[in-house]
């Protein structure tokens, strides 16, 4: 479960945000739509604990992540939060599989090759497991970032424009996979996007 209350944040006097309260239950999902520049990525970074709010609460289960120290937050994020960033972030010299195994190692959950293979197959990139990330297309890289966010079965899945480089077919595959994964692993899914193709695939949505 992820829930926010009275969240406020400012980069500076010019960029000051108040965000709507959200509650996304286990297995639940929420689509957050908004035009460019309204603060979607800022909101997602707050939910992920990558930015500290000026005021308000961000509860994941019973933990208010806004109150955790940096060290505790890093550990908490590795175990409980899966993030799909707008731009894929990988070690380019490593293969797809090696990158995912590294993520498992760093989060302290231990390597699970079977899980890595399974998630790659489901995203239709199993055949690229031994390929260097730098040799993939943008759409394939985006699917690897989704695999990276899901590989540790997180409690909360946060995704920033997960479908922006995907064609309609893979857009539907990825959205279904994210929803299925949330349902199967009792996770809460938050998708942030300006991609209106997604609106019909989510029953819960808000606009920023
Ligand atoms: N580090 C920063 N310092 C100052 N202002 C920032 C910073 N990051 C973002 N902003 C500003 O905050 C506003 C919201 O940015 P944000 O990236 O959250 O928007 P967005 O809705 O995700 O946009 P897009 O859909 O174009 O990615 C923008 O006006 C942006 O210029």
Task: Give the SSE map.
Blueprint: E1 2-10, E2 16-18, E3 23-24, E4 29-33, H1 40-47, E5 55-60, E6 63-64, H2 70-80, E7 81-84, H3 96-106, H4 113-122, H5 138-150, E8 156-160, H6 168-184, E9 188-193, E10 205-207
Parallel strand pairs: 4-9, 4-10, 7-8, 8-9
Antiparallel strand pairs: 1-2, 1-3, 1-5, 5-6
Bound molecules: adenosine-5'-triphosphate.
The site of adenosine-5'-triphosphate has 12 residues, from helix 1.
Question: Which class best fits the helix and strand makeup?
Answer: alpha/beta
Count of β-strands: 10
Annotated CATH homologous superfamily:
P-loop containing nucleotide triphosphate hydrolases
Q: Give the total of domains.
A: 1
The radius of gyration computed from the alpha-carbon positions, rounded to a whole number of angstroms, is 16 Å
Helix-strand sequence: EEEEHEEHEHHHEHEE
Indicate the CATH architecture.
3-Layer(aba) Sandwich
Distance between termini?
A: 21 Å
CATH class identity: Alpha Beta
Categorize the overall geometry.
Answer: globular
- pLDDT under 50 segments (min length 5)? none
The total count of helices amounts to 6
Which whole number gives the mean pLDDT? Answer: 89
Hey, roughly how much beta strand do the residues contain?
Answer: 15-25%
What hetero molecules are bound to the protein chains?
adenosine-5'-triphosphate
